[in-house]
Predict the 3D structure of the following.
Amino acid sequence: QKEVEQDPGPLSVPEGAIVSLNCTYSNSAFQYFMWYRQYSRKGPELLMYTYSSGNKEDGRFTAQVDKSSKYISLFIRDSQPSDSATYLCAMREKTSYDKVIFGPGTSLSVIP
Amino acid sequence: ETGVTQTPRHLVMGMTNKKSLKCEQHLGHNAMYWYKQSAKKPLELMFVYSLEERVENNSVPSRFSPECPNSSHLFLHLHTLQPEDSALYLCASSQDPGQDYEQYFGPGTRLTVT
């Protein structure tokens, strides 16, 4: 079983839709969770970062962590064409600052 | 811009060539990383430097040789590469140690080995 699994998509939604992106993981020691956005021909950029179960909101983005189910989600409200990108989940153990494990990414297209 | 720059942005090299990738961070971080990103695969951590000392080498072939002369600069020296080494090579930096941990990525070097 892979440490981090993520539906690769591609996911195509109409503008204005609510998007749900998900990752599951197997290592119960993971405590820090990140979402990165990667546009074509660019490096990943950090979108959201959280280390506790529950929800964290930042504008149109909400990160949700359920440690009991080993499941994290990123919700995008009122999706825009500019949200079209690949979204990578990432996570690490508390003390393993240098061992971040990434999911393979989900490709999202928001159609005007 | 994230404060991490990489040059060149694109590189085409033959299998017998020697080339180097450069990364520079302007964030005051003291940990730097090389990742390989191949199509439809997760990012693969190649090397980690913390305080200019290598702390991770994930069984990367010796044809990849990193160098970290100071906390702001990181190089990846390439020689006798194989076509399967064609990928996007990403550099990242972070503050080490730090509980509020974030890695900031550069734009990457798109490498094609012919």
Observations:
- Chain B touches chain A through 30 residues (CB under 8 Å).
- Chain B has a mean pLDDT of 89.
